[in-house]
Each structure stands twice: as C-alpha cells, then as structure tokens.
Amino acid sequence: MLATLLLQTAVVTADSTATAAAATAAVQPSSISVIDLILKGGWIMLPIFALSLVSFYIIIERYITIRKAAALPDGFMNQIRNLMVKGDLQGAKMLSAQTASPLARMIEKGIRRIGQPLKDIETSVENVGKVEIARLEKNISILGIIAGIAPMLGFVGTIVGVINIFYAIASTGDFGIAQISGGLYTKMVTSAAGLIVGMIAHIGYHWLSIMVERLVFRMENSAIEFMDILQDN
C-alpha cells in the first residue's frame, strides 16, 4: 500500500514538473535574428538601406581621398624655398609636378606664373586652391542631405505602421496584440533604422568637413609662405 502511494506521488510530481516546464517554455519569448527584424520593417526599409550604402560609400571614398591629399612630404615648402632662393625655378617646378597633392599643384601654378605681377600670381594660386577644395568637398554635401532624409523615411514607416494597426483593428473588429504587433514592428523598426542611418550620415558629414577644413588651413598657410618667398626674391 505504501509503495503504491509513493508511486502515485512520483507520477504526480513528474506530471507537475513537465507541466511547469512546458508553461515556462511557452512564456519565454523566441529569439529573432537581425535579418528577420529588418524584414519586419516592410518595403520602407529598401530606400533606407540604399541610403545607408550611399553614406558608407561616400564616407570611405572621401576619407581615402582626403587622406591622400593631406599626405605631403616632410619639408616640401622648405625644399621649394631653397630651390627658389638658388634661382632653380625649373627644379622647383619639377618637384611640385612630381608631388601628388593639392598644395603642390597650387605651388606649381604659382611658379609657372613667375614673371607676372604678384597680384596676378596670387590670384592664380587662389583659383587653383578653390578648384582643389571643390574636389575635396565632392559628394560630402550628399551626406548632409541623407542625414535629413533618412529620419523622414523612418517617420513615413511610422505612419505606415500606424495605418496597418488601424486597418487590422477595423478588419477584425478586435483590439488585441495580434492586430497591433505587425504595425508596431513596422513603426519601431523603420524609425530606428532611419535614425541610425541619419546619425551615421550626420557624423560622416561633419567629420569629413573637419578634415577638409584642416587641409584648407594648411593650403592657405603654404600659399602665404609661397607669396612671401616671391616677395623676398
């Protein structure tokens, strides 16, 4: 009799444990991958994704270009000064032509104009500088545009998600999790994606602009130094 009672107790305990485990498993939410989460955003994620690709391309391409432009050999202006003091204008011109840098192209233009009034030489150097700066700033303004458009697209996704929620409620006549979950996914995912892409573009825009400003400052100082060399000679 005692053995039977113990057996029944063990069976009940096992059943209770299994039931509790099943209930716990049902309560625990299933994980979702990043890809699945992005797909929950719907079609509005396509233009946001395209803007992210454009942003990354411009940031990487402009960064490499500006870094190359800023890579000037040490003592370049000192070498130019020494050659010009010696009267070796051809050597100074060759040194500038062989140096792949916006600054070197400015100096080369100035050397080619030697013999003309200093004002004309200064104007030529400034014009070359403006062209080089425009090349450095190419496509950076697009990042500013993306920084404004991406969050707006995310807001459009928010509106679409709200519309989906109300449509589901109107279609079923029921206000429950099943009716609002799909719209909430679209609303939250697109909003987050738009803000993230906008922040990346915004940071990239200002970061690259600062790099260009630093290079422009160096170019201006070197142009002033070049004009001083001409005046001293």
Automatic annotation (TrEMBL):
<feature type="domain" description="MotA/TolQ/ExbB proton channel">
    <location>
        <begin position="100"/>
        <end position="220"/>
    </location>
</feature>
<keyword id="KW-0472">Membrane</keyword>
<keyword id="KW-0813">Transport</keyword>
<protein>
    <submittedName>
        <fullName>MotA/TolQ/ExbB proton channel family protein</fullName>
    </submittedName>
</protein>
<dbReference type="Pfam" id="PF01618">
    <property type="entry name" value="MotA_ExbB"/>
</dbReference>
<feature type="signal peptide">
    <location>
        <begin position="1"/>
        <end position="20"/>
    </location>
</feature>
<dbReference type="InterPro" id="IPR050790">
    <property type="entry name" value="ExbB/TolQ_transport"/>
</dbReference>
<dbReference type="InterPro" id="IPR002898">
    <property type="entry name" value="MotA_ExbB_proton_chnl"/>
</dbReference>
<keyword id="KW-0653">Protein transport</keyword>
<keyword id="KW-0812">Transmembrane</keyword>
<keyword id="KW-1133">Transmembrane helix</keyword>
<feature type="transmembrane region" description="Helical">
    <location>
        <begin position="189"/>
        <end position="208"/>
    </location>
</feature>
<comment type="similarity">
    <text>Belongs to the exbB/tolQ family.</text>
</comment>
<dbReference type="GO" id="GO:0005886">
    <property type="term" value="C:plasma membrane"/>
</dbReference>
<feature type="transmembrane region" description="Helical">
    <location>
        <begin position="41"/>
        <end position="60"/>
    </location>
</feature>
<keyword id="KW-0732">Signal</keyword>
<keyword id="KW-1003">Cell membrane</keyword>
<feature type="transmembrane region" description="Helical">
    <location>
        <begin position="140"/>
        <end position="169"/>
    </location>
</feature>
<dbReference type="GO" id="GO:0017038">
    <property type="term" value="P:protein import"/>
</dbReference>
